[in-house]
Amino acid sequence: MLKNHEKFHSANGKRTILVADDEQINRAILGAILENDFEVLYAENGKEALEILEENREIISVVLLDLMMPVMSGMDLLRHLKEEPELQRIPVIVLTSDQTAEIECLSLGAIDFISKPYPQAGVILARVTRIIELSEDQQIIHSTERDPLTGLYNREYFYRYAEQFDQFHKEMDMDAIVLDVNHFHMINERYGKHCGDDVLRRVGESVRNVVRESGGIVCRRSGDTFMVYCPHREDYRDILENASVSFTEDASSDNRVRLRMGVYSRVDKVLDIERRFDRAKSASDTVRGSFAKTIGFYDSAMLETELYEERLVEDFSAAIRQEQFTVFYQPKFNVRSENPVLSSAEALVRWQHPELGMISPAVFIPLFENNGLIQKLDTYVWQHAAAQIRDWKDRLGVSVPISVNVSRIDMYDPGLVEEFQALLKKYELLPGEFLLEITESAYTQDSAQIISTVKRLRNLGFMIEMDDFGTGYSSLNMISSLPIDALKLDMKFIRDAFRDGKDTRLIELIIDIADYLNVPVIAEGVETEEQLNALRAMGCEIVQGYYFSRPVPAVEFERFLKG
To answer: Helix axis angle, 554-562 relative to 374-396, nearest 10°?
Structure first.
């Protein structure tokens, strides 16, 4: 009897066996041996056996197969089973007196043999039992090592098999490749999750088929990301093109999924497997959003960037403790009247590293956003900005509202509202003196939760500016329902609009949207008098940019307060 297995294949707790033999006496002998321990089904030829297998594929644990049968031989049935993925998992024990057939049977997937005339009943029962146990153990292992959607290796087993491959091929050059589906979330949105899952299955199958010939292995890393570990090759473009599939199973469809690829070629085997694929993923991210370039390669320049970024992350805690970060302030002017009037300022952080010098926020802000450190940096800026407002009120008798950036990760903090309340209480400030800038993209990624938090903040008196408006791809219908107090026009629009063509229609449209919402527009990145006058004529109320001042330290900013 089988023991210590929880999975049973029939109502009475017995596993099911199919005996396929055209001789009635052979079926009777095997039935007498097996029926006490198993449910036994019988077939008189290969065709009948195939029909029983297709109808009972989920419950049959093993097939005892005679080779010489009418209609369809046992050998032909083996060939058919080899081509059917759903039937391949069922182990086959061949019943034969022809030992010369064993090699061919093994090549077609047979797992064991029972010779004719049959050995003792105990031998047959023991071999059948053992084969079933081995098969079920193998299926359990297979289910734990595979991604249930695509059937590819999951990440843990993929890394393990990659390490084993290296152990036996120490001198072989290997490539780590990462494939991503561009804008996969839009496939789910437009065509539904069922279609998205189907796309992932077919992409996975295509990648596996392309790589299989070279001896590589494939994994679904997570979501819409796949990993390939294979002997070094140069035909990366072919892999990418062959892996691309259409949104539907119609191969002639021109509506194809766009993929991007990151390649870490001839990997450094001193690095652990996971690190190698992190490098390939970094290469893939360099071509994110690009229509012209779909393959990125990890190179020495990326290595230098990676080492530099690691240094910044390592030094972050010390920088916070030692206050290497300085808050600068850039004024915002109301330009509706002839003489611009200071209305507020934006707090912008700068990092003066003791060894690396001044580090651009364009470098460290995205880095800290990706690894979560931005939340701690934001809190640092909020504290310093609030303290500065208090200082100016006490020393100069002037209250100037300061806007601070609130990152998307901040918005997921359940204690955010209470943190801002505590900040106001500590420095005895009013909510209107502490403006909050939230990027448009934050609203579009998890709008329900973000909007709920923003409404709580506005109910307490905080003013909300939607930052980088025009870059988050929110719909007009969505914008009309968002709780905001100002739209902040991304500086890229200003630069593009006043470039050679001087096409300001998009800016005019955004100002019209703001008028409809009854909120002011803040234009940042304004550098010339021409830009200022044009924006004023279009109805823009507040302007920020180098035309008035670059971001400056608090001491230097005081000239705007005293003037």
So the answer is: 40
